[in-house]
Amino acid sequence: MVKAIRFHETGGADVLKLEHVEVGEPGPGQARVRHSLIAVNFIDIYFRTGRYPLALPNGLGSDAVGVVEAVGPDVTDIRVGDRVGYLIGPQGAYSQVRVMPADVLIPLPEGISDRTAATLMMKGMTAQYLFRQVYPLKGGETILYHAAAGGVGLIACQWARALGVTMIGTVSTDEKAAIAKANGCAHTIVTSRENIAQRVREITEGKGVPVVYDSVGKDTLEASLDCLQPRGSLVSNGTSSGSVVIDTKLLAAKGSLWLTRPAMVHYIQPRSHMLAMAEELFGHVLAGRIVSEPQQSFALADAAEAHRALEGRKTTGATVLVP
User: Which stretches make up the Enoyl reductase (ER) domain (predicted)?
Assistant: First the structure.
């Protein structure tokens, strides 16, 4: 028996319960992984609250790092003793040990610690697909990125700097603005006291930006659209403040704008592509262009407390659970 967080109904953080569960031997195409660190992501809250439906009862979490304890038949490229991470697959990462599909496991290279890797699986790979695939940045652009001091945001700040991109980042406090700037964000907008669209137009001398990456959703939709150049793109990659509902006529009225709602699963497959994404990300880390460590740690048993901190905007950077 091992310890795992499970929930039997959707709702607030209190629905998360620490339970003892059985973990068997891996079957064909599977591996058993003992976790060293588990990442907490905002998407976990969507599953917990029912915004993204799951059959209940269920585990939670899709992002962790650890060591392979055992492999099942037909597993050829993952071996016992390998350090691995993952970001897709069935829910259940909030656990000490679990059996996983082996084809979602990403081997971790030497030079990438478990602490760093725990911030890179979902968050770093999200920055990769947003910046390199959804709206591929070539360098020289000025962009707007919401929640620049968050877990993905701090990696995005550094990646933008590495690409030669001028990043304007929104944050909720002056303290978070300082953190974003220290990580490479060229300009910050403190949303509690500054008008987003007005500041973007000032920074860009009235031109606006070609792309906005918006993980906030409902509360920032109007401002995001008002920041875009004609034929600009709004990448709606999250809805932490609520879902985005839009009349498409508004896209035409504001300059024939493009709107996309990307999902990681459509950008990370097949496995060879996922490994290539990870290789690019790891390359930036090993070269020192991206430095990433967890900023908050909670015991596995305190997963509910970690969720409250994330929902209450009391965190910066990445948050992890220690099993």
Answer: 11-321
